[in-house]
Amino acid sequence: MSVTVKELDAGDAARWDAFVQACDEATFFHRAGWKTVIENSFGQRGHLLYAERDGQIEGILPIFDVKSRLFGHRLVSTAFCVGGAPAVTSDEALAALDRAAEDLMARTGAEYIEYRDPSRPHADWPKKEGLYANFERPTEADEDANLKQIPRKQRAVVRKALKADLVDEIDTDIDRFYGLYSPSMRNLGTPVFGKAYIRNLLDVFGDDCDILTVSQNGRPLSSVLNFYFKDTVLPYYTGADPEARKSGAADLQYFRLMRRAVERGYTNFDFGRSKVDTGPYAFKKNWGFEPRPTVLEFKMKGGAALPDINPNNPKYRFFIDTWKKLPLPVANMIGPWLGKQVG
């Protein structure tokens, strides 16, 4: 029997997520809950497409119809995330999902399709490579062995932080996290996502999403929002006070996250994606993680030129430099609207 593609009904998310748990190619960014999070946070419509044969799902594609006054109209899997390209168990399912995505592009009038970090790249789709890399490795169960995974100079920083009067805790106060996250984003020249988005992540993903905050004398210094999936913990959004570097709070944050995750049975640490040759990229290498290059691939309508929506594009340099100088209340007011445009 041939493979057919359908769009997931609202009440059938459990079936979708069961496939996500079982499929080797699926990630946290394939979970059905992203449709609720993204539609409620950014107002961009999601389509959960699945390929089925004989009543069994063989592949999924969470793709979002992102309409932006600034960056045009595109279909992105999964928008606002670093992954979400087709996850499949057969080549037939991939081909069927590709056709469904192209049909959706024709129906919606989108200018192109973007797959982020695909497991099975297409030989004939244009690609962008060398912009980003991901960092991931197993975590040693023994604490001392875990410390020895960290190169000597960085390990010394962590050991010093472990001896300092720093306290780490799972934080239920979104305001504490956001108070560190939003100025950190402004300082990077990046529009911040709204506080409602953070709340939606915690509400939708429940125990598979939390916040770890490191404080000193009751003052929050560093905080990170994390995702948990299969055997992996992924620190995804973070913010830090300028004092965090001096005290080692940011370094302690990641080590304590590793240890807490191991205690919960998560034995793999995904340090996430960073732009090549940036500060975060170097920081993760200093922790002994090896970069894995990631790919963005595109299906363009009518042979149009590839888009170049990334911070390395020189035409965005003035905007980034200006954003860094904005008063924080202004950046926090405008940022969420701009964030909805990025996808």
- By CATH, the architecture of the largest domain is named 3-Layer(aba) Sandwich
Low-confidence stretches: none
Helix % is 25-40%
**What is the average of the pLDDT values?**
93
So how many helices? 12
What does this structure look like?
The chain has 343 residues and is α+β, with helices and mostly antiparallel strands. The protein folds into two domains: 4-120, Gcn5-related N-acetyltransferase (GNAT) (Aminopeptidase); 134-292, Gcn5-related N-acetyltransferase (GNAT) (Aminopeptidase), CATH 3.40.630.30. Helix content is 39%, strand content 30%. It has helices spanning 13-22, 33-42, 91-108, 143-148, 152-163, 174-188, 195-205, 243-247, 249-263, 279-286, 317-324, 328-342, and strands spanning 4-7, 45-53, 56-68, 72-77, 87-88, 112-116, 127-138, 166-170, 209-216, 219-229, 232-240, 268-275, 291-300. Strands 1, 2, 3, 4, 5, 6, 7, 8, 9, 10, 11, 12 and 13 form a 13-stranded mixed β-sheet that branches. β9 (209-216) and β10 (219-229) form a beta hairpin. It is globular and about 60 Å long.
